[in-house]
Amino acid sequence: MQCDEVALLIPSSLDDDQPVPLPVQTHVESCLRCQAELARYKRMLRGLQLLRTQLLEPAPGLLGLTLSAIGDASEQHAIRSLLNKRKVAYVGAISGAVAAAGAAAAIIAVQRSRRRAAAALATT
Amino acid sequence: MQTDESGDRDDLQGLVEAARDGSRTAFDELVRRTYVDTYTLAVRLTGNEEDARDVVQEVYLRAWKGLQRFRGDAQFSTWMYRITANTSYTHMQKRRRQRTTNIDDIEEPTEIRLEASPDAMAESAAGRAELAEAVQRLPETLRQIVILKDVYGLPHEAIAEELGISVAAAKVRLHRGRKKLRDLLDDGEVKAHAV
């Protein structure tokens, strides 16, 4: 394997979960140039990991804006769920009223038909 | 989010549980403790503070709405990193649609002058600042992967899911990103020596 080929494979071989191909490993062990290249990549990765500890200070007011955005969203959610509950209650009440009216109409219809039947029997 | 790694993870976990039970006070405290870290990641992913501020607000709204779905089998910080990655990605996509110019063209490096060699990057604060600057010069698609994998340690699978790409594509981009970053640092070193 040539140094140029190895150099192309080094960036992918830095992860712990990626096994380093044996030819690459063998070449690097015996090549000072590639060992140096690998070392530079590893230093770069260490530097990148350290960036995680470098926090950037946000402009003042971001926390307040964020908290108030959450507050607004919570209020909207609360209002929406209240409206939904009311909607369910209205729909329930209307359906109940319709069902009661239907039942009453059915009872009246049955009573009328019985009366008519009784009247017909009486005339005969 | 750094705090849960440095000792009071249980404290943060307690806040997460209380927030999951509906406590706004607990959630507000979670925001207070983690928003600087979220903002830092958002700046690194979007490349500018204005977008990062919008992203932070959106991240916490999503977190508040989706807290019930956080099962607690991963760290809260990792969960927040994933939301931040996804929110930044969608935010930048929207941004790109709004702009007529290509954002990658704007962010292409004009000139990088590094005072330290890539070898010394990890050794000094100044070196880290130079490295951070070089990361920001990466094209957006490569930068996202390098930051999420090499800075924040998210697994390829999580990154692929949040950015809507395949795991194979994430790995290819990481490879290219590392190579490009290395080239940028080398390029800077050459320029610095030439000055």
Q: What attributes characterize this protein structure?
A:
heterodimer; A: 124 residues; mainly alpha; 0% strand; B: 195 residues; Rna Polymerase Sigma Factor, Chain: A; Arc Repressor Mutant, subunit A; 2 domains; 72% helix
Overview of this protein structure:
The complex is a heterodimer of chains A (124) and B (195). Chain A has 124 residues and is mainly alpha-helical. Among the domains of chain A are: 49 residues, no CATH class; 36 residues. Chain A is built from 4 helices and no strands. The mean pLDDT of chain A is 86. Chain B has 9 helices and no strands. In chain B, helix 1 crosses helix 2. Chain B is globular and about 50 Å long. Classes of the chains: A mainly alpha (124), B mainly alpha (195). Chains A and B meet through helix 3 and helix 4 of A and helix 2, helix 3, helix 6, helix 7 and helix 9 of B.
